[in-house]
Amino acid sequence: MNLTAMNQSDVCQEYSCPERSVSFSVYVILYAAAAAVSLLTVCGNLLVIISVSHFKQLHTPANILILSLAVSDLLVGVFVMPFHLSWLIESCWISGPVMCSVFSFLTFQAPSVSVHTVALIAVDRFLALSSPFLYSEKISPTVTCIATIFNWLFSLIYNLTLLYINDFTGVMCPGECLYIIDKVSSLVDLIVIFLMPCTLIIILYTHVFVIAKKHATAIRALQIHNRTESSKNRVSDKSERKAALSLGILVFVFLLCLLPFYILSLTNFLKDYSFSKVINSVLVLVYLNSSINPLLYALLYPWFKKSVKIILTLRVLNTDSSLMNVLSLNS
């Protein structure tokens, strides 16, 4: 929860732990649903992490970025989502000051890493389609790993600096886990974490789909003159366009989940402080994206389905299982 500066007594006056107003059966159902969503998020992203890390065939630049996104989503599933959902159900923070500090930091760190990783995915697809020869020569898994590590370090340093500048001690109120961010820091955070990367994502993916359409038109023209050669080119280009489309769906869903929260945050910033618990509820949609991503991988990537099957049947424990062909469904 990101609050702009205000008097601590006003915060504590506004937030208090109400008495539970729902029946016990509803209470149990809410907690069961929260546990199920959190477990789905953790298990789904663990399967993505194991798949990309274990199978050497999946050590590609695009998949390394997917791995980075899955690690960020896993952190959300373990340290953020359960506590946030519990907070919403109880209308009160019950997890203590230590978990409040961990929770608060990761509500900054995880979205920061995720947004910039999605921006890197957009850059990756743009280079793969616009400059395929340069991409194949210069963009290796090692280069992508370095970019990914830099992304995590940048987010870590940026968020620690942001919290340090704002004297990250939280607001000590009974049953609350709040932190105060001043107006300048809030504006900087909005620009760095949302406006700049999302603008880049939209611009690059617009170019990606324009380029993909041009490639498809060119391939159809080549088929008239040389069916054999165009067939070879068509396989490679179709693979790149399919990857762009799959990742485009991933990016679109990601932006769809983030937009409501940041629109409300921007609205709050542009007027005098008037925090609404609606924003806290809308944050659930941001965190749910971490649950949705593994489901999208299952729908969009045959290699993920095959990897999961190998993992769940414990064939992953076999010698040389990392060399197994998990891309055969694409051939």
UniProtKB/TrEMBL annotation:
Regions crossing the membrane: 28-52, 64-89, 101-123, 143-165, 190-212, 243-264, 284-304
Keywords: Cell membrane, Disulfide bond, G-protein coupled receptor, Glycoprotein, Membrane, Receptor, Transducer, Transmembrane, Transmembrane helix
Pfam families reported in the protein's UniProt record: 7tm_1
PROSITE patterns, sorted: G_PROTEIN_RECEP_F1_1 (PS00237), G_PROTEIN_RECEP_F1_2 (PS50262)
GO molecular function, one term: trace-amine receptor activity
Native species: Carassius auratus
Keyword Lipid metabolism among record annotations: no
Cellular component terms per the entry's GO annotation: plasma membrane
Location of the G-protein coupled receptors family 1 profile domain: 44-297
Subcellular localization, as worded in the UniProt entry: Cell membrane
Record's bilayer topology term: Multi-pass membrane protein
The protein's name in its UniProt record: Trace amine-associated receptor 7e-like
Family: Belongs to the G-protein coupled receptor 1 family.
